[in-house]
């Protein structure tokens, strides 16, 4: 069996793993990354993300430091609310029903903008999130605390981080399946199959950053419920929970909401797992606050206007999964269709178009009478008032259940559009217990020497729901922390790279 020594081993090659590897290397450690997928499918779930990343930027003036491409004319056209640490924390607490681990949340929030600046130094480029504003009175009015995204979405993010990792000389091994981890005399011995050949790697520290169990149908069924067995996997097919299993065998403990996950409505005919030939989160459907959502019986089942989509899509994906046939339809009329996001206009989008509600129902294979009754009851409940999709305008319904709390326009102007959707799972909320410094904690709540975790493997941040873009930010924050702490640990224990 081949043998090799290294200071830090990082499991995974997504955003969290790459940030961890780069941070450890910057601190002087030798680093080896192990990726179960082939090189052509590297990057984990990060490859598929839309790139929106949430941070406590404070004022727009501060955010401009990471948006160097904005010219003065563009700046004058932007109206952007402040979004500081208090606002970020308030969103986390509100959407998780106050269950987020306060210590972990504090790290995420307080280090978010500094980590954005650090990522920029690593070569990641940022741009304004074009899906986060509406044009009004000649201004781009931003909303929802998510005005920033990585240039060229998740593809651009991981490409930049891989370029930096390779420039630093970080060793990346693909087709690498870690089958065992032994801890001997403060050293970690990993047994890894690399392209089918067994290799023993000895390291001072190991960073687990290889995702949750969202791509494992049996684990989804066990922990999330039977209805999740056939859910569409919106990202990589390689996040099957093996890293979690390996960490638990090494002494880690479960933490967080193991029966919870980030889910999103996605095109009903989307691939069953992420298509590496079509990245960029092109199948999701996020403009539903502008319209209505009905199931195959033609009935509404959620308050489409409860909040901005950033704060409801993770929850409403799950609600869609509970519907008959795990199917629903997002409905829009000609009043709002010009404001639909870009993914609605892609050739991959499934769309039915009609000049009457009854004709639309027939194309949807929904009872025309049932859908017409739903639309009629909704229209009669719409209250007067100014409509503004850039703010929570309070334009609502009364006397219909469920209500629509904001952005309630009558559904009456042809042509009408229906987009069939189902639930797509993005990542699981349950993980392992880590300290605010990314150290893996044992059942005595003490750090297990030399073991760290980041990304989806960190449990305790998200419960029931989550603020859009905070998962990508958490991956970067705790990835960077894990890398720095792992390198510090190596320096205390004499790095293997310095041994003869």
From TrEMBL:
Coiled coil: none annotated. Keywords: FAD, Flavoprotein, Oxidoreductase. Its cofactor is FAD. The keyword Flavoprotein applies. GO terms for molecular function: steroid dehydrogenase activity, acting on the CH-CH group of donors. Signal peptide: none annotated. Residues 7-470 form the FAD-dependent oxidoreductase 2 FAD-binding domain. It comes from the Bacteria. It comes from Shouchella clausii (strain KSM-K16). This is FAD-dependent oxidoreductase 2 FAD-binding domain-containing protein. InterPro entries: FAD-dep_OxRdtase_2_FAD-bd (IPR003953), FAD-oxidoreductase_2 (IPR050315), FAD/NAD-bd_sf (IPR036188), Succ_DH/fumarate_Rdtase_cat_sf (IPR027477).
């Amino acid at each position: 069996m081949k043998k090799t020594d290294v200071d830090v081993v990082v499991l995974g090659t997504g955003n969290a793993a790459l940030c961890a590897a780069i941070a450890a290397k910057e601190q002087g450690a030798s680093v080896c990354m192990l990726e179960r997928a082939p090189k052509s499918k590297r990057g984990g779930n990060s490859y598929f993300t839309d790139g929106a990343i949430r941070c406590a930027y404070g004022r727009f003036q501060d955010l401009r430091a990471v948006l160097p491409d904005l010219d003065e004319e563009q700046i004058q056209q932007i109206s952007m609310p402040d979004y500081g640490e208090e606002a970020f924390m308030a969103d986390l607490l509100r959407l998780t029903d106050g269950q987020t681990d306060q210590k972990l949340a504090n790290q995420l929030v307080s280090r978010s903008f500094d980590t954005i600046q650090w990522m920029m130094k690593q070569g990641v480029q940022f741009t304004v999130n074009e899906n986060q504003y509406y044009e009004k009175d000649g201004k781009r009015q931003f909303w929802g605390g998510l005005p920033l995204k990585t240039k060229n979405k998740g593809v651009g993010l991981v490409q930049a981080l891989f370029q930096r990792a390779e420039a630093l000389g970080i060793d990346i091994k693909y087709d690498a399946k870690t089958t065992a981890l032994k801890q001997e005399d403060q050293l970690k011995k990993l047994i890894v199959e690399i392209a089918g050949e067994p290799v023993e790697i000895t390291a001072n520290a190991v960073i687990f950053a290889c995702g949750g169990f969202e791509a494992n149908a049996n684990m989804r069924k066990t922990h999330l419920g039977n209805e999740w067995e056939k859910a569409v996997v919106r990202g990589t097919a390689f996040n099957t929970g093996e890293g979690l299993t390996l960490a638990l065998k090494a002494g880690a403990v479960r933490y967080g909401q193991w029966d919870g996950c980030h889910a999103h409505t996605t095109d009903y005919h989307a691939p069953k797992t992420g298509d590496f030939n079509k990245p960029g989160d092109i199948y999701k459907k996020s403009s539903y606050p502008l319209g209505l959502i009905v199931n195959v019986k033609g009935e509404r089942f959620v308050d489409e206007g409860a909040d901005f989509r950033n704060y409801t899509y993770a929850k409403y994906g799950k609600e869609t999964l509970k519907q008959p046939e795990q199917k629903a339809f997002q409905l829009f009329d000609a009043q709002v269709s010009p404001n639909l996001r870009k993914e609605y206009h892609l050739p991959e989008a499934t769309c039915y178009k009609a000049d009457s509600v009854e004709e639309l129902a027939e194309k949807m294979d929904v009872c025309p009478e049932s859908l017409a009754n739903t639309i009629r009851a909704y229209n009669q409940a719409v209250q007067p008032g100014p409509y503004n999709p850039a703010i929570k305008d309070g334009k609502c319904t009364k006397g219909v259940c469920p209500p629509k709390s904001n952005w309630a326009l009558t559904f009456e102007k042809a042509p009408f559009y229906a987009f069939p959707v189902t639930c797509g799972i993005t990542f699981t909320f349950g993980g392992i217990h880590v300290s605010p410094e990314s150290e893996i904690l044992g059942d005595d709540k003490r750090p297990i020497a030399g073991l760290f975790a980041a990304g989806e493997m960190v449990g305790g941040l998200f419960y029931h729901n989550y603020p859009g873009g905070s998962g990508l930010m958490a991956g970067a924050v705790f990835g960077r922390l894990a890398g720095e702490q792992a390198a510090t640990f190596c320096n205390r224990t004499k790095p293997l790279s310095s041994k003869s």
